[in-house]
Design brief:
The complex is a heterodimer of chains A (317) and B (252).
Chain A (H helix, E strand, L loop, with lengths): L2 E10 L2 E11 L4 E5 L6 H8 L7 E6 L2 E2 L4 H7 E4 L11 H11 L7 H11 L15 H13 L5 E5 L7 H17 L3 E6 L2 H7 L2 E6 L2 E6 L1 H9 L1 E7 L4 H6 L3 E7 L2 E6 L2 H12 L2 E8 L2 H9 L8 H11 L1
Parallel strand pairs in A: 3-8, 3-9, 6-7, 7-8
Antiparallel strand pairs in A: 1-2, 1-4, 4-5, 9-10, 11-13, 11-14, 12-13
Chain B lengths: L1 H23 L1 H23 L10 H4 L1 H15 L2 H8 L2 H6 L5 H29 L6 H28 L3 H17 L12 H9 L1 H14 L6 H24 L2
Classes of the chains: A alpha/beta (317), B mainly alpha (252).
Chain lengths: 317, 252
């Protein structure tokens, strides 16, 4: 167990950001915390990184108590923050050299280690340029490189691909998987992108309002809840009849649409449509983590992402 | 022992970053050269043309030690605003999560600011050689050390204010209330001896008075208090300011 929490709680005045969280992460996992903005992911990760002190409860990272042994915790972890935190006015190499000094990387291996991590993230050629000439994806890569400089046992990534275009995002995923393998690291990341959690993570905890609502392998979560999803718009709203069908696992209503999760849509669709009566719209697809999230919270994960996230970022400047 | 080395390396890392950025941001360099020149040549020579000789020195030479202190004071105090920008841009996070004590982070920043201010101090000492200020090598060394002590104290004050505020605008307002009274009531522009008594009392509670007095004593041989007394007060004040600075950084 490289990360363990017991009733971990953080309150800001009356608002509870993280509530009585119990969590265990195994060595070598890529563990995802999936949830909408404001779910408490960053608060949780900040506590584990000893940036924030919990209001109550306890947690251990690499066997060290996050409150009493915060120095040891810090030495044994790498962090990539949500907002870019590389120094614009230094070169890539200088940023890494500074990290070496701050994290006490042994003098003899510093230069070699810088070259090593630069090559893992393919930044050798730009290493001596100022960071303010880098693209968003390059900055992220530099931050990844910096995060792993001191051979941490655990790497924390807070929204590692926030604000990156889809292509760059996939590249960053490759780098993360690569890093975890090459450096034998456990990775804990937060995200509100379903695809990210599905593609990247071994196990996923779905978080909402500071609580874990589900935790398992992405596939298991999907099988348990989703199977296939049928999105349907009925002329006559007759949910009760549909709920009684034995192959319908769950029904959610949202914006006049019904979201049905069905074990196997192809064998039941005909029968289903016979029961629903006339319809305006139907769509069948295989289930995603979004459906899992919808199932547990009654909301879609995308809600509140667009504008809220944007303003949050603008206000920070 | 290894703990100590890693703290020292932490201080060095933070200082090195500040020094590199100081050299790279040309605006900082240029402004730190121009503003003291204006004070010495425009203000000193201008007012000097109407003011009589003070204690045997022209007004320009008389205010020279005060101008040197002023330049260091302004740069040092304003340096505190960078800590606010660092926090706003999230750059500081990387440093704050490092396994290095906050005292070391503070020390690195403080030395960075002192380096910044002392570049100006050194520049001013060189200017002094050209305007008939009596500077011998020994005087230069003493003056340098005194300015360094002043800048350490004042950078610490600037960092305390910066660490406790969240906006650069707020910093600008607060710093004006600290900087100008400190400067005016320090005797930098006029001798303390012949002031009205209320003003004289105000100068005595101002730590900078002792810095100015020491500088004038070292360079011109005109001092109100013994120089070791001035230096001791400045030293204690610097210690106090650093202590409060470290506490402020711990809460950051």
């Amino acid at each position: 167990m490289v990360i363990k929490t017991e009733g971990l709680t953080k309150k800001y005045g009356k608002i509870t950001a993280v509530e009585g969280l119990n969590l265990e992460v195994e060595e070598g996992e890529i563990f995802g915390l999936l949830g909408p903005n404001g779910a408490g992911k960053t608060t949780l990760i900040s506590m584990l990184c000893t940036i924030l002190k919990p209001t109550s409860g306890r947690a251990w990272v690499n066997g060290f108590d996050i409150v009493r042994e915060s120095g040891k915790v810090r030495k044994s972890i790498g962090i990539v923050f949500q907002a870019p935190s590389v120094d614009d006015l230094l070169t890539g190499r200088e940023n890494l050299a500074m990290h070496n000094l701050l994290f006490g990387v042994p003098r003899g291996i510093r230069k070699q280690r810088i070259d090593e991590v630069l090559s893992i993230v393919n930044l050798e050629k730009r290493a001596d340029d100022l960071v303010n000439t880098y693209s968003g994806g390059m900055r992220r890569r530099l931050e990844l490189a910096r995060g792993i400089m001191h051979h941490p046992k655990i790497l924390f990534l807070d929204e590692p691909t926030l604000g990156l275009d889809p292509q760059t995002r996939e590249h960053i995923w490759e780098y993360i998987v690569n890093l975890a393998e090459k450096e034998c690291m456990t990775v804990m990341l937060t995200t509100h992108y379903m695809e990210e959690a599905e593609q990247l993570c071994d196990r996923v905890a779905i978080i909402d309002y500071g609580k874990i609502v589900a935790l398992d392998y992405p596939q298991t979560l999907k099988n348990k809840v989703a199977g296939d999803v049928v999105k349907i718009k009925q002329k006559a709203r007759d949910i009760e009849t549909i709920k009684k069908l034995d192959y319908v696992k769950s029904v959610q209503e949202k914006d006049g649409l019904l979201y049905l999760s069905i074990k196997n849509a192809s064998s039941h669709l005909q029968d289903l449509l016979a029961h629903t009566g006339p319809i305006d719209f139907v769509e069948v697809r295989s289930g995603t983590l979004n459906d899992v999230f919808l199932h547990y919270t009654g909301r879609e994960i995308r809600e509140g992402e667009g504008e809220g996230g944007f303003w949050e970022r603008v206000m920070k400047r | 022992m290894s703990e100590l080395i890693s703290e020292i390396e932490g201080i060095y890392a933070v200082w090195l970053r500040e020094a590199k950025i100081y050299v790279r941001e040309k605006e900082r360099l240029i402004s730190s050269v121009i503003s003291p020149l204006l004070w010495i040549f425009a203000f000193g020579a201008g007012v000097g043309s109407t003011v009589n000789v003070i204690s045997g020195y022209s007004y320009q030479v008389f205010i020279y030690p005060g101008i040197a202190v002023m330049a260091v004071l302004f740069t040092s105090l304003f340096y505190g605003v960078y800590i606010i920008w660092d926090r706003k841009l999230d750059f500081l996070k990387e440093v704050l999560v490092a396994p290095v004590s906050r005292a070391s982070v503070f020390a690195g920043k403080m030395l960075g600011g002192a380096t910044d201010a002392m570049m100006q101090g050194i520049f001013l000492l060189i200017i002094g050689l050209f305007i008939k200020v009596p500077l011998t090598p020994l005087v230069l060394i003493q003056a340098f050390l005194m300015l360094l002590l002043i800048s350490i104290a004042m950078v610490s004050i600037g960092l305390v204010i910066g660490a406790n505020l969240n906006s650069p605008e707020g910093f600008g307002l607060v710093i004006n209330f600290v900087m100008w009274p400190m400067f005016f009531f320090s005797g930098a522009l006029f001798p303390v001896g012949n002031l009205p008594s209320w003003l004289e009392k105000a100068t005595y509670v101002n730590p900078l008075t002792y810095g100015v007095d020491a500088m004038r004593g070292i360079i011109l041989g005109i001092n109100h208090f013994p120089i070791y007394y001035d230096a001791a007060i400045m030293f204690l004040f610097a210690l106090l300011a650093m202590g409060v600075g470290i506490l402020s950084f711990r809460r950051m």
